[in-house]
């Protein structure tokens, strides 16, 4: 006998002679104990001295009728005082009041009434108000309470399929694996919508949690962890599901740490927790994880995900899923060896009748089952009676039907199938409440993604009633509210109560206080779509009303300040505005800095990014929205850590938008903003894709068609993007801990490499993964035709895979080499593999294009001739010769034109052709190019064995050499790109990046020119035309090192990923061109100096260039040398002292052309070299004099009339030379960031740390001291004078910033 939904009191066993009132009291207390809720019962007992004021004639009306009754009352009072469900048992005083209308009454109850009111209000506060004000951090506890309440509600509906429930529970308890040798078991409960899968899963969870039946002698007990995706719309999110499961499993282990935040982290956490919990099981214990609605679980993009499912379950762990019939996940799981499918099927007649009897009995009703009037048979003859949901809806209709004589007729008229019955139920709602109110209400519930709170639905319906039949618009909804108090609320509450009842029958709990109303289950949502959403304009009207209501919640005082806004309305408002057909209103919000500030303050930057993407997807032109979006994307990482810097960031946005004006209004009164004088005046248009990546991206690839892109990350997550809309299509999880590289093999097939050495291919349409290699690095790859890929591994293994459009099948595996395979080369006839074991193996390519027999064949030939590891190999264009190079500094050429067993003849040997290891070789017709770690590139004639020429060497190792169109190009590991003609004449040489190049590739652009793309650690991707010797086109916008780039000629776009978490798509620079920034340095800015009158500034870079600035614009540029500029100083308005990192200190003259006014710099004389690099320069007090500080502690004096520098003193530790008081420093800093001040004394005063890293710049500007350090901070010390202060700041990206303080609203403030 399954328990019903009514908590029962065992009346038969209760003592006889008790009153109905006592039974009602005990019934309530019993229900409180069963529900586990807090005590909510208050009992008030009259003071016994009251009887002294009652006349004798009326005293019998106030005392017990007998001694036995008096004893029962005393017993009840004592029981109440000890019951845990009773919140309070107290006494109250009163007095005899006399007679009124022939009946006695009491008075003096004012204090009693006040106490009752106080107790009730306190209970309401504890249950509703205080629960809402609990501090955040109990998200898992709140979710668990929701899940427990939902499971309790669902399991009370179960009264059928008892045999199936027992069989499934028994099998899970026993833990028998479905296949021999398997670990745990995977059980899939499947059925059509309305078959009762959720109710069955809830009953199974209860059954497994209970102790086994008495006849079962095994001590088996299950630990049950369950999750129901239908408990609330957000409970189907993959992050929510995994977070709840991980929290429950952690509690079983006694762990209190919160689950990870990222999706990948949650998946890994689940995979580690399952075996950990399994290891704690004792005896015959089992762990059962139940997940209802597994096919409804979706990722952040809304797409179904299933990659969180463990590939193998630990022993004694069972995973039970419920999945709808026909779901793609079901077909995928049926291919697993450990899967057991449990179809629910139709209810048998006995279960059908039992369900109807139980539901009607709850309300004191039943159907006739006599031979002459068998109403039950009429019900069971319905086609839909085999589904529990159909019977639940039918009984709900019958219990509300009040004409007993026409029940049989009513049953016959009810629709026979579930979809038609749902339409009938909606029609009944319309008859009771009106067609239009019901249509608006259900349309609003359908339009809301996460359902609506009762207050929200009440506000929507009130606005609609106040409009009084006028067309529903957003403007009308915003204007409504003035007559809200006059709108009758009783009809609206009645409608909401009916909707909650219908939703409860379809699976949503109806008694949870404060729960959201939502259309639970696919059958109900489908019925609403078919009945109402065909009506033109209804869906848009519902969105408009919801948008107006949410707007009022976000801006309650209608001031557009959004100060008191909550996170929920802010996040939902953009979606409803777009669906209401008002992207213009969304655009007005997205260009309101106060609306943006509300998101930043609440930590909703990813949500705001989605709002900008929504606006971009509409037909509305971007306009000023683009400037706001670019500003937020550039500063997303900064704002997430420092929300208060929003006004500062907006104030320095390019002109042409209202950002600057709004920033001044947003800043606090009396505050100051630091303005960027020479900022770029054109807003960058990178068309960035907004992604909230929890970890840094590592690589990016674009599909051949240009419509999709894939981004890999350090946590092993692969994000698939749509190149047009910028939206994330789906998220996949690789088998490794991180993704190091990815490439599209075809439009639907992706190949990726993992950080653990694995190689995987993915069929993106089926989201299927196949591991090609794993466990070791794959340093070399080569194609054998169009469909076979060969790879060499770090363990010496060669592997081959046959690649189709959607899958990759392993073809063969050859274990021949005894060291890592460092190079592969393929010709139409042969495959060559170069190894760390000093050998090169030749394999017949035709044999490797198909599966190999077991055992696999030996190589066709083994080339032995190198005396160290072989690092590279290359076939000539005609396949006649093979060149191999190695760490023995030798280049060997083999004659392989006639493949045959046995070693081919050695055609040419070039021993010691380089001074260090060979790193690459490539054929140029009959000639051979080689490059080496010695920094050289050499051209050889193998026929004669002669070196034809050596190209001018690099400063460091050469990592790659490339020949194209009669030119030779080489990329050094230091980032230098060089090009020569075939005669050895150097055409160009330049640092592609100031530091290491992370990635480089050559390709032919749309105009046919050869281009090289380099991505470096300075946050930029640069495209070069090295054969045209032009400056690079710079794509500036990333705020961290670029770690990957991909070019899509089909889409005419460049995609880049960076450590700042941003994925940016750029229009093809070869089509649109890129505007260069003003006065870019090629490397980091290493020195800055102001002229004495403050009109000019000069900046020096680490590549040796000098740039003269005036009014924040670059006026002249000159190359001062090849070394970094360490320090600069103006001796006068026309004389500049330049100190390089190495070499002579020079005096430069600044001249102005009398005709054009153009400025120029000329070196006037050299002052000689110094013992250590110059770290700083400063005025010496006399005109045309400077003081120089050296890294070794020496101090030198420059005077214009002296030909050399004069030593002054030493401030380094140890013996010190004599001080010259007139040349002492006023202020200095130590390398660790401490401040030193001299105030007319010989020993300085040491202050505490002023920066957290080395101070890189120090300047005195009047009574203001400015310091800058490697921690990224620029600080201003002492009090700022009333004048504006102009600063010049250089960074490691080659930018020079001219900054000034802007005083807001005329108020003085400390900086």
TrEMBL record:
Identify the domain of life.
Answer: Eukaryota
Asked whether the UniProt record includes Transcription among its keywords, one would answer no
What lineage is on file?
Eukaryota, Metazoa, Chordata, Craniata, Vertebrata
SUPFAM superfamilies, alphabetically? P-loop containing nucleoside triphosphate hydrolases (SSF52540), Putative isomerase YbhE (SSF101908), WD40 repeat-like (SSF50978)
Segments forming domain NACHT: 185-410
UniProt repeat feature WD, residue ranges:
814-843, 863-896, 925-950, 1035-1066, 1081-1109
Name the PANTHER family for this protein.
Answer: TELOMERASE PROTEIN COMPONENT 1, TELOMERASE PROTEIN COMPONENT 1 TEP1
**What is the originating organism of this protein?**
Mauremys mutica (yellowpond turtle)
Example of a GO biological process term: telomere maintenance via recombination
UniProt keyword list: WD repeat
Give the protein name, as stated in the record: NACHT domain-containing protein
| The keyword Cell wall biogenesis/degradation is assigned to this record | no
CC per GO annotation: telomerase holoenzyme complex
The GO molecular function terms of this record are: telomerase activity; telomerase RNA binding
């Amino acid at each position: 006998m399954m328990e019903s939904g009514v908590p029962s009191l065992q009346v038969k066993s209760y003592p006889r002679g008790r009153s109905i009132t006592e039974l009602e009291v005990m019934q309530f207390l019993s229900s409180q104990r069963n529900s586990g809720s807090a005590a909510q019962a208050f009992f008030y007992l009259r003071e016994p001295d009251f009887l002294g004021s009652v006349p004798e004639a009326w005293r019998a009306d106030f005392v017990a009728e007998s001694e036995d009754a008096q004893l029962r009352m005393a017993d009840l009072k004592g029981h109440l005082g000890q019951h845990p469900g009773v919140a309070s048992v107290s006494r109250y005083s009163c007095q005899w009041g006399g007679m009124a209308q022939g009946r006695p009454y009491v008075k003096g109850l004012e204090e009693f009434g006040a106490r009752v009111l106080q107790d009730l209000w306190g209970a309401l506060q504890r249950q509703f108000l205080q629960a809402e004000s609990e501090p955040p951090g109990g998200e898992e506890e709140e979710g668990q309470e929701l899940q427990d309440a939902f499971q309790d509600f669902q399991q009370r509906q179960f009264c059928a399929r008892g045999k199936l429930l027992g069989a499934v529970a028994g099998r899970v308890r026993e833990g028998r694996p479905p296949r021999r040798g398997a670990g745990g078991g995977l059980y899939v409960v499947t059925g059509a919508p309305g078959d009762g899968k959720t109710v069955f899963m809830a009953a199974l969870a209860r059954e497994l949690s209970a102790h086994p039946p008495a006849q079962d002698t095994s001590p088996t007990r299950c630990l049950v962890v369950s999750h129901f995706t239908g408990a609330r719309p957000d409970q189907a999110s993959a992050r929510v599901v995994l977070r709840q499961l991980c929290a429950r499993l952690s509690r079983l282990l006694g762990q209190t740490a919160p689950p990870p935040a990222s999706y990948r982290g949650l998946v890994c956490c689940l995979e580690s927790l399952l075996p950990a919990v399994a290891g704690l099981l004792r005896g015959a214990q089992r762990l059962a994880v139940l997940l209802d609605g597994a096919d409804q679980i979706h990722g952040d993009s809304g797409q179904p995900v299933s990659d969180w499912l463990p590939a193998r379950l630990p022993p004694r762990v069972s995973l039970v899923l419920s999945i709808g019939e026909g779901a793609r996940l079901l077909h995928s799981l049926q291919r697993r060896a450990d899967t057991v499918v449990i179809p629910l099927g139709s209810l048998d007649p006995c279960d059908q009748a039992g369900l109807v009897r139980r539901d009607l009995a709850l309300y004191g009703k039943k159907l006739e089952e006599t031979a002459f009037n068998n109403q039950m048979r009429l019900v069971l003859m319905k086609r839909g009676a085999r589904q529990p949901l159909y019977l639940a809806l039918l009984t709900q209709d019958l219990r509300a039907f009040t004409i007993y004589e026409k029940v049989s007729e009513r049953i016959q008229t009810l629709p026979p199938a579930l979809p038609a019955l749902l339409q009938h139920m909606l029609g009944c709602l319309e008859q009771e409440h009106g067609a239009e109110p019901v249509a608006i209400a259900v349309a609003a519930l359908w339009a809301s993604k996460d359902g609506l709170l009762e207050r929200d639905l009440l506000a929507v319906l009130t606005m609609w009633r106040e409009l009084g039949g006028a067309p529903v618009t957003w403007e009308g909804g915003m204007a409504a509210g003035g007559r809200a108090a006059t709108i009758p609320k009783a009809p609206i509450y009645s409608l909401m109560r009916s909707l909650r009842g219908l939703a409860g029958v379809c699976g949503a709990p109806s008694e949870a206080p404060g729960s959201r109303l939502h259309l639970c289950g696919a059958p109900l949502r489908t019925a609403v779509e078919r009945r109402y959403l065909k009506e033109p304009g209804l869906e848009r009207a519902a969105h408009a009303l919801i948008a107006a209501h949410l707007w009022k919640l976000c801006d309650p005082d209608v001031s557009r300040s959004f100060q008191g806004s909550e996170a929920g309305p802010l996040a939902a408002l953009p979606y409803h505005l777009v669906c209401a057909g008002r992207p213009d209103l969304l655009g007005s919000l997205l260009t309101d800095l106060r609306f943006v500030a509300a998101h930043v303050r609440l930590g909703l930057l990813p949500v705001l990014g989605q709002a900008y993407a929504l606006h971009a997807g509409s037909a509305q032109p971007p306009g000023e929205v683009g400037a706001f979006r670019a500003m937020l994307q550039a500063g997303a990482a900064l704002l997430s850590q420092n929300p208060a810097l929003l006004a500062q960031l907006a104030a320095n946005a390019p002109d042409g938008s209202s950002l600057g004006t709004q920033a001044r209004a947003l800043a606090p009164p009396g505050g100051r903003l630091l303005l960027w004088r020479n900022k770029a005046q054109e807003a960058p248009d990178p068309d960035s894709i907004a992604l909230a990546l929890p970890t840094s991206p590592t690589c990016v690839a674009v599909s051949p068609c240009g419509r999709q892109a894939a981004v890999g990350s350090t946590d092993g997550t692969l994000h698939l993007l749509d190149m047009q809309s910028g939206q994330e299509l789906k998220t996949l999880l690789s088998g490794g801990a991180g993704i190091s590289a990815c490439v599209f093999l075809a439009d639907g097939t992706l190949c990726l490499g993992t950080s653990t050495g694995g190689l995987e291919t993915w069929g993106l349409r089926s989201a299927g993964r196949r591991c090609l290699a794993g466990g070791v690095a794959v340093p070399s790859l080569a194609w054998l035709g169009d469909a076979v890929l060969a790879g060499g591994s770090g363990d010496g293994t060669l592997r081959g895979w046959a690649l189709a459009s959607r899958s990759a099948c392993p073809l063969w595996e050859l274990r021949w080499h005894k060291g890592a395979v460092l190079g592969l080369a393929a010709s139409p006839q042969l495959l060559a593999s170069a190894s760390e074991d000093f050998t090169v193996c030749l394999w017949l390519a035709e044999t490797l294009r198909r599966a190999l027999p077991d055992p696999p064949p030996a190589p066709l030939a083994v080339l032995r001739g190198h005396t160290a590891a072989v690092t590279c190999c290359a076939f000539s264009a005609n396949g006649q010769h093979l060149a191999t190079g190695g760490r023995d500094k030798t280049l060997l050429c083999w004659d392989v034109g006639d493949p045959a067993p046995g070693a081919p003849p050695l055609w040419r040997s070039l021993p010691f052709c380089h001074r260090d290891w060979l790193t690459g070789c490539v054929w140029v017709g009959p000639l051979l190019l080689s490059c080496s770690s010695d920094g050289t590139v050499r051209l050889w004639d193998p026929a004669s064995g002669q070196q034809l020429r050596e190209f001018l060497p690099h400063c460091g190792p050469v990592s790659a050499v490339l020949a194209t169109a009669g030119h030779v190009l080489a990329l050094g590991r230091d980032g230098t790109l060089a090009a020569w003609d075939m005669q050895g004449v150097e055409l160009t040489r330049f640092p592609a990046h100031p530091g290491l190049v992370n990635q480089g590739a050559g390709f032919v652009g749309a105009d046919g020119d050869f281009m090289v793309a380099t991505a470096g650690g300075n946050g930029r991707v640069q495209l070069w035309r090295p054969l045209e010797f032009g400056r690079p086109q710079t794509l500036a916008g990333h705020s961290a090192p670029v770690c990957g780039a991909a070019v899509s000629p089909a889409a005419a776009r460049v995609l880049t990923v960076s450590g700042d978490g941003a994925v940016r798509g750029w229009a093809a620079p070869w089509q649109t061109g890129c505007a260069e920034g003003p006065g870019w340095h090629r490397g980091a800015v290493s020195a800055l100096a102001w002229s004495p009158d403050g009109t000019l500034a000069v900046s020096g870079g680490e590549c040796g260039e000098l740039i003269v600035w005036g009014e924040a614009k670059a006026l002249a540029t000159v190359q001062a040398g090849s070394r970094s500029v360490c320090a600069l100083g103006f001796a006068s308005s026309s004389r500049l002292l330049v100190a390089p990192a190495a070499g002579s200190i020079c005096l430069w003259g600044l001249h102005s052309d009398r005709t054009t006014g153009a400025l120029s710099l000329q070196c006037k004389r050299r002052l000689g070299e110094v013992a250590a690099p110059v770290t700083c320069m400063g005025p010496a007090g006399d005109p045309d004099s400077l003081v120089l500080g050296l890294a070794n502690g020496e101090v030198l004096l420059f005077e214009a009339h002296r030909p050399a520098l004069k030593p002054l003193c030493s401030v380094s530790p140890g013996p010190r030379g004599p001080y010259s008081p007139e040349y002492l420093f006023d202020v200095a800093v130590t390398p660790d960031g401490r401040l030193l001040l001299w105030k007319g004394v010989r020993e300085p005063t040491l202050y505490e740390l002023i920066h957290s890293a080395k101070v890189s710049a120090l300047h005195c500007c009047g009574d203001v001291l400015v310091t800058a350090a490697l921690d990224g901070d620029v600080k201003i010390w002492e009090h700022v004078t009333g004048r504006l202060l102009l600063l010049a700041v250089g960074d490691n990206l080659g930018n020079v910033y001219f900054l000034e303080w802007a005083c807001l609203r005329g108020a003085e403030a400390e900086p």
